[in-house]
Design goal:
Strand content: 15-25%
Shape: rod-shaped
Radius of gyration: 62 Å
CATH architecture of one domain: 2-Layer Sandwich
Largest sheet: 4 strands, antiparallel
CATH topology of one domain: Tetrahydropterin Synthase, Chain A
Number of helices: 9
Distance between the termini: 171 Å
Number of strands: 13
Length: 329
């Protein structure tokens, strides 16, 4: 009984071992190929249970998911001979496990082959585009062209390239400073041009304002002179009317205005004895000193002034041509 039980247990173990070696599972994220002594048998791509010959057939598993290859940054030359350091990433998946197994065998080998293909296509595409368009304008189109060209070559590896993207595009470190200096000089030149245009516009505006100022001042001066002339004409008319009404009073008033302007404290005037300037003062003085002239006919002094004016001494005889002195207090 003990010997029979041992044989039974051994048989069960052998059956279990044979079952585990004869079946294998393919999940939703994997796929594989079956080889017998190194010769290809079939491909297992759909999820499920598959059979194989125990200890003879072997299964090579591969990933069905979307894979990525983050390549090492490389330097490229653009159409205008500018050096550009580009870091790209490639997204791909395995579509033919047998061809993949024959050509690259592992993911490391697949990444190495894909990087070489993408490097070559990237270098060829960037050599046809100027530096500025790589940075800004045609970056999306460049990536599409590179992905399409690399995908055709990757089909021979059983790989389908889904996308190629530029993560970063920089200038080499040894030329960055010179490029920055050139950019700074260009911006400075552009700023100076804007300043010059602004100064020119400022000068034009100031010239227009000065010209308008001169025109306004000339118009104002012309209008002022016209109003002044009209006022003076009106004043002359008023004086003429006053002169016609009472010429003697008008002459008297004008003479008083003259006195107010020329007779000031401390002033001394030297005038001839028959000057019309003080005719009113002299005539009034003659009338007030007539009795004194009758009492003493030998001396006939004349005085002129206002208030405390000093006397005027004419010549002793003959016409009054010698002159006299008038002092205003």
């Amino acid at each position: 009984m003990g010997k029979a039980g041992s044989v039974l247990l051994l048989g069960i173990a052998v059956v279990v071992l044979l079952l585990t070696q004869s079946i294998f599972l393919i999940s939703e994220t994997t796929q594989g190929i079956v080889t017998r002594l190194g010769n290809y048998q079939y491909t297992a791509q759909q999820p499920g249970i598959y059979f194989r010959v125990p200890f003879v057939d072997s299964v090579s598993y591969m990933d069905r998911r979307l894979l990525s290859s983050d390549a090492v940054p490389q330097e490229y030359l653009t159409l205008d001979k500018k050096r550009l350091r580009v870091d790209h990433v490639t997204r791909w998946r395995i579509i033919d496990p047998f061809r993949y197994f024959v050509t690259v065998r592992t993911e490391a080998g697949a990444r190495a082959r894909l990087d070489d293909v993408v490097y070559s296509e990237m270098r060829r595409e960037l050599a046809t585009v100027p530096f500025g368009q790589v940075i800004a304008e045609q970056r999306e189109q460049i990536m599409t062209n590179v992905a399409n060209s690399a995908a055709k070559q990757a089909e021979s590896f059983g790989i389908q390239i889904e996308d190629v993207r530029i993560k970063r595009a920089d200038l080499p470190s040894e030329v960055q400073q010179s490029v920055f200096d050139r950019m700074k000089a260009e911006r400075s030149r552009e700023a100076n041009r804007y300043r010059a245009e602004g100064a020119e516009q400022s000068a034009q505006i100031k010239a227009a304002a000065d010209r308008e100022k001169v025109v306004l001042l000339a118009d104002a001066y012309e209008q002022a002179q016209k109003l002044r002339g009209e006022g003076e004409a009106e004043a002359i008319g008023i004086y003429a009317q006053a002169l016609q009404q009472d010429p003697e009073f008008y002459a008297f008033q004008r003479r008083l205005e003259s006195y107010a302007k020329i007779l000031r404290g401390g002033d001394t005037l030297v005038l001839p004895s028959d000057s019309e300037l003080f005719s009113y003062l002299l005539s009034n003085h003659r009338q007030s000193s007539a009795p004194a002239d009758q009492a003493a006919p030998a001396a006939s002094p004349q005085t002129a002034g206002t208030g405390g004016a000093q006397p005027v001494s004419p010549a002793p005889s003959g016409p009054p041509a010698a002159g006299g002195t008038v002092s205003a207090p």
